[in-house]
Amino acid sequence: MDDDNAVPSRVTEPFRFAYDAPTLRCGRHSAGELGEELAARGLERALVVSGQTVGSTPAVIDPVRSGLDERLAGVFAETTAEKRLATAAAGAERVRELDADCIVALGGGSSLDAAKQVSVLAARAAAADDDPATAYDAAGTELAETGTLTVPETVVPIVAVPTTLAGADVSQGGGVTATPEGGLVGESVSGGLSDAALLPAAVVADSALFATTPDDVLAASAMNGFDKGIETLYASTATPVTDATAIRGLSLYQDGLLAFGDGIREPWVFDALARGSLLVQYGISRPDAGTLSLIHSLSHGLTRGQPIQQGTAHGIVAPHALNYLFEHVDGRRDLLADALGMADADDTADAITTAVADVRDALGLPTRLRDVDGPEPDEFPAVAEAVLADGFMANVPADLNPTSEGIKAVLAAAW
User: Fold this and answer.
1) Which of 104, 268, 379, 414 is most deeply buried (CB count within 10 A of its CB)?
2) Which tens digits make up the pLDDT trace of 180-197?
3) Of 160, 186, 209, which one is at a domain's C-terminal end?
4) Could you tell me if residue 175 is inside a domain?
5) Which residues belong to any copy of the Fe-containing alcohol dehydrogenase-like C-terminal domain (predicted)?
6) What is the pLDDT, as a whole number, of residue 1?
């Protein structure tokens, strides 16, 4: 055999991995080390940004308050699932009023996304020559015109303390909406922002905090995070670094989620979930690349303008998306099978899809689109077009050529 062909080309091809990773702290009661983490960065006054429930639940907020100690400047517990720009403007005003020099983003994906908006608006207001309100108005105008916000070179540093498993913490992007009621836009707008400056300076994954999250909320968020690891392995932008972290992260995630689904609430379960969550996120959101792909684009298409939750959409569509993937390309099924403990299966593609469905079923998530409040079959052509236009589709395997008919077939199978 010719030496050049002795191993698969994927093993020998060159790669570039550019990633300014946040500091990762992971462990039971690690929220108690928040003050130490801020001190290491010379940060002295933190504004905690969270939702109302998290901010008023002693089991969640008290460890954070205690961990920050004298570095706690205040709490802004007003974020919502809508991630509204007007809410972020109010948060930015709190940053200014309290002279906070950093933000501790506490909660699920919505609060972490909102904290990124607060960081951007606070930095823009600080740079404004006159009333900071003009900076907020300008942000509303820009969002309405472009669907995004310009991120200043220097923003208010964020330390993320996640309480769900959606995987928004080791990320440089986030969603944003605005409505006329907020006073910053003339019509409802939905968009997003992304910039390397928004990657948190540190992430503190306290498994004890995950254990305080209601079971249904944690389960709904888990499928989103789990699929990040799945997609990272077959993305065209995968690297040996993200392969390694995704494989180990998926293994931990799978063990933790199956045990969670069986009703086991022992500390090791939440420890496995915290570690798995961090590992599948590592390196997936980079300045020059990302690894989210087909499943996430399908989820975006299904949830656009619909009340269906992201994790629910993931659970329903992921097995069908994988069937479509494996029908057309290899999808690096050997690595996925290794990660999910299916390497010895006769049909690895079928075994992988079954393993993903088993996780979904263990979490008690819906299995069919017809059973949730989402798009109807007559809307599938529009959903397919939205999926194909989604930015994450740029990361599908290079030899996969998604078509509208193919995406509609996936949606029909999920119905």
Assistant:
1) 104
2) 998 899 899 888 999 999
3) 209
4) yes
5) 219-415
6) 42
Q: Does residue 302 share a domain with residue 394?
A: yes
Q: What single-letter DSSP state applies at residue 154?
A: S
Note the helical H segments in 128-214.
133-146, 207-210
pTM of the model: 0.93
Residue 12 in any domain: the answer is no
Residues in Cβ contact with 35 at an 8 Å cutoff, skipping those fewer than 6 apart: 67, 68, 69, 70, 71
Residues 154 and 270 in one domain: no
Residues 242-255, mean pLDDT to the nearest whole number: 97
How many structural domains comprise the chain? 2
Domain CATH number, residue 270: 1.20.1090.10
- The angle that helices 215-234 and 348-362 make with each other, rounded to 10 degrees, is 160
What φ, ψ does residue 190 adopt, rounded to 5°? -130, 130
For residues 260 and 346, the answer to whether their CB atoms sit within 8 Å is no
Helix axes 404-414, 294-303, angle to 10 degrees: 70
Domain housing 393: 215-414
Calpha distance 260→219 (Å, rounded): 9
- Cα–Cα distance measured from residue 231 to residue 217, given in angstroms and rounded to the nearest whole number: 22
Show the tokens assigned to 369: 């689109």
Q: What CA–CA distance (Å, rounded) separates 314 from 309?
A: 9
Instruction: For residues 147 and 190, state if they share a domain.
Output: yes
Whether residue 10 is predicted with pLDDT greater than 80 in this model: the reply is no
**The Cα angle at residue 246 between residues 400 and 266, in degrees rounded to 5:** 135
Quick check: 23 and 202 in contact, CB under 8 A? yes
Tokens of 355: 């393993």
Choosing from 178, 209, 240, the residue where a domain stops is: 209
Q: Residue length, the chain?
A: 415
Q: Indicate if 200 and 222 belong to the same structural domain.
A: no
Q: How many CB atoms lie within 10 A of CB 251?
A: 18
